[in-house]
Design brief:
about 260 residues, eleven-stranded antiparallel β-sheet, two-stranded antiparallel ribbon, 1 helix, 13 strands
Length: about 260
């Protein structure tokens, strides 16, 4: 997938983050399930057999990987969640900030990242969380990544119709006793954090190393939007929900050399 040049900086930042000393598997659990419509690769119900969870702090941000297997992401199926600013979510009593735990937050491409021909538009309150589903193991014949976008156009072929999932509704604070309802939903991507690792790689307190939350997001290929950014949003290529809860563990960098 090829978008405007600014996307390169986002990918590079994530790649740099992946080389920092912190990408061993965290202790915890993660679940991702829903439905996809990826031409020549995957059509129908989807569930990620997630057994590898990692958090990679970089400056003020945090990259979360929920993945099947611990191989490099270029050979794996998984989900990458990028929180651009930890301080916009974690409580900070010293400055009187109550935090945003349990609140639904928008998930979208960074505002400066657009498909070719689509102008960059200023947003008063841009999303500070993005998500990308990669299927490099399942779709070996092509480079498949789908991006969570703020809103999609929902087709009538059942692509976005999902089953209920307990604890995966960001609008109720990821309450583990409640189901995210079945069906198509709103077409708008949301995530909610109930804990966020503070980013200190030598943090001795277990409670400060926990990252947990849930999401309900709609995936698309942004290039399928209307030319020039006019008209309806891109077609829904997937609707996935998930939960994650794991503790950061400092380990060897995830990098292709000893």
């Amino acid at each position: 997938m090829r978008l405007r040049a600014p996307l390169v900086s986002v990918i590079v930042a994530a790649a740099v983050a992946m080389t920092l000393p912190s990408c061993s598997q965290g202790e915890g659990s993660g679940k991702v399930a829903g439905t996809l419509n990826v031409p020549n690769c995957w059509t129908g119900p989807f569930e990620l057999d997630a057994d590898f969870l990692a958090a990679v702090p970089y400056r003020e941000g945090l990259q979360i990987r929920i993945q099947s297997g611990s191989d490099f992401d270029s050979f794996s199926d998984g989900l990458s969640i990028l929180l651009y600013d930890i301080n916009k979510v974690r409580p900070a009593p010293a400055i009187g900030f109550a935090g945003r735990y349990g609140q639904p937050l928008a998930v979208d491409l960074p505002p400066e990242v657009t498909p070719p021909g689509v102008p960059v538009k200023a947003k008063a309150d841009p999303a500070f969380v993005s998500e990308t589903l990669y299927l490099q193991q399942s779709c070996r014949t092509q480079n498949v990544t789908l991006h969570a976008v703020e809103e999609v156009s929902i087709p009538s072929d059942g692509t976005c119709d999902v089953k209920p999932m307990k604890g995966a509704d960001p609008t109720n604070g990821c309450d583990p006793s409640k189901d995210a309802p079945a069906g198509v939903g709103t077409g708008k991507s949301l995530i909610s954090f109930t804990h966020v690792f503070d980013g200190t790689v030598d943090e001795p307190q277990a409670a400060e190393r926990l990252t947990a939350g849930c999401f309900d997001v709609y995936l698309a290929d942004p290039r399928e939007g209307a030319p020039g950014g006019l008209g309806p949003p891109p077609r829904c290529r997937g609707h996935i929900r998930g939960t994650f809860s794991f503790y950061f563990e400092r380990g060897r960098p995830s990098q292709p050399f000893p």
